[in-house]
């Protein structure tokens, strides 16, 4: 289903946002991107194909202007800070950016009658797993301010549905990874903390080694198990969530993952096979707040959205990330 209206994409210049923008443009959608470029990159956007607004969601006058000028039929909300460790040491930064700032956007949406919202939520809203794989009924008990900020916004969105009919899909991502297989856009965080890019940085020599955080977990090889979901699979889920709301779908949470888990050591071995390099590894203590195992139960995404991950093998994620990292841009944007 191609929509008739404009989509407002917050954080569209970031990692998951930019891949989704590329995918939605390919599906014939019309897009306005709002990004403050704190973590996003102007170069991640095809500026000839989208309307780009450099600004911040907390700017009430700008939000009013944006909604008035473009009358978006839906908002896809990616803009957020996502460093779990930093959220523990500076919680107010996370509550201001991930919770308070979107309230300004939501107020403008209410004033202008925009009633569809696709929210980049996270499995971090669940906290420590009480059962694996995790479905949407899993208790939500976030263990850090990042997860809590996302969980609280889910609650706000439910209340907005009750009060003024805002319909939302909370897409709870597991571990986003991989890059555009064409190598045009990719993952460029500063600082980079994620496992796969750091492994590849160790492979190129950009960092001296990858440190494995914890080898004494109750898992077969002692290292943490995660469900790695390709960024392009996340992108296609956003389009399906949008079509679900266009067809009158109710507010609902949907997990996005493959249903398969891989350990840190397995990911390192696969990266060695992809790159043909021996990756220097050191073994360190556990990282605070890391549960041993996070695996998604993706059945609801199939049932409600008709979505299924296409890139289930992390080898594909690593191959596309390696292509980006060793490609013409060497894995970095100029702007
Ligand atoms: N990890 C690691 N070394 C690193 C970065 C991550 O061992 O330099 C581990 C981390 O403990 C977790 C997994 O890799 O078990 C995925 O971490 P990442 O930061 O990529 O994603 P998160 O699970 O925090 O969203």
Automatic annotation (TrEMBL):
Q: Which cofactor does it need?
A: NAD(+)
**Under the GO molecular function aspect, what terms does this record hold?**
UDP-glucose 4-epimerase activity
Q: Name one GO biological process term.
A: galactose metabolic process
Q: What is this protein called?
A: UDP-glucose 4-epimerase
- Pathway this chain belongs to: Carbohydrate metabolism; galactose metabolism
Top-level taxonomy: Bacteria, Pseudomonadati, Verrucomicrobiota, Verrucomicrobiia, Verrucomicrobiales
Q: Which UniProt keywords apply?
A: Carbohydrate metabolism, Isomerase, NAD
Q: What is its EC number?
A: 5.1.3.2
User: Could you say which protein family the record assigns here?
Assistant: Belongs to the NAD(P)-dependent epimerase/dehydratase family.
Tell me how this protein assembles.
Homodimer.
- InterPro entries tied to this protein: Epimerase_deHydtase (IPR001509), NAD(P)-bd_dom_sf (IPR036291), UDP_G4E (IPR005886)
Catalysed reactions listed for this entry: UDP-alpha-D-glucose = UDP-alpha-D-galactose
**What SUPFAM superfamilies has UniProt attached to this entry?**
NAD(P)-binding Rossmann-fold domains
Where is each NAD-dependent epimerase/dehydratase domain found?
A: 8-257
Out of the domains of life, which is the source? Bacteria
């Amino acid at each position: 289903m191609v929509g008739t209206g404009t989509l407002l994409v917050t954080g569209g210049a970031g990692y998951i946002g930019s891949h989704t923008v590329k995918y939605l443009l390919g599906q014939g959608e019309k897009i306005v991107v709002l990004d403050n470029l704190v973590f996003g990159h102007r170069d991640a956007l095809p500026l000839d194909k989208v309307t780009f607004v450099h600004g911040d969601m907390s700017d009430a006058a700008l939000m009013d202007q944006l909604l008035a000028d473009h009358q978006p039929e839906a908002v896809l909300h990616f803009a957020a800070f996502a460093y779990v460790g930093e959220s523990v040491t500076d919680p107010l930064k996370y509550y201001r950016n991930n919770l308070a700032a979107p309230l300004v956007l939501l107020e403008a949406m209410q004033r202008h009658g925009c009633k569809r919202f696709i929210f980049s939520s996270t499995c971090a809203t669940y906290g420590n797993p009480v059962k694996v794989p995790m479905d949407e009924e899993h208790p939500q008990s976030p263990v850090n301010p990042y997860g809590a900020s996302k969980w609280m916004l889910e609650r706000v969105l439910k209340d907005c549905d009750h009060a003024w009919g805002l319909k939302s899909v909370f897409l709870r991502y597991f571990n986003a990874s991989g890059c555009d297989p064409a190598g045009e856009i990719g993952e460029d965080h500063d600082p980079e903390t994620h496992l796969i890019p750091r492994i590849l940085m160790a492979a190129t020599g950009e960092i001296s080694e990858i440190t494995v955080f914890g080898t004494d977990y109750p898992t077969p090889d002692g290292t943490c198990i995660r469900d790695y979901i390709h960024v392009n699979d996340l992108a296609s889920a956003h389009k399906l969530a949008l079509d679900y709301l266009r067809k009158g779908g109710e507010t609902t949470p949907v997990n996005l993952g493959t249903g398969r888990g891989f350990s840190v050591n397995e990911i390192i071995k696969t990266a060695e096979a992809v790159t043909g390099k021996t990756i220097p590894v050191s073994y360190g203590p556990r990282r605070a707040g890391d549960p041993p195992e996070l695996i998604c139960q993706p059945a609801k995404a199939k049932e409600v959205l008709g979505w299924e991950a296409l890139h289930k093998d992390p080898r594909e994620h690593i191959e596309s990330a390696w292509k980006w990292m060793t490609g013409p841009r060497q894995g970095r944007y100029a702007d």
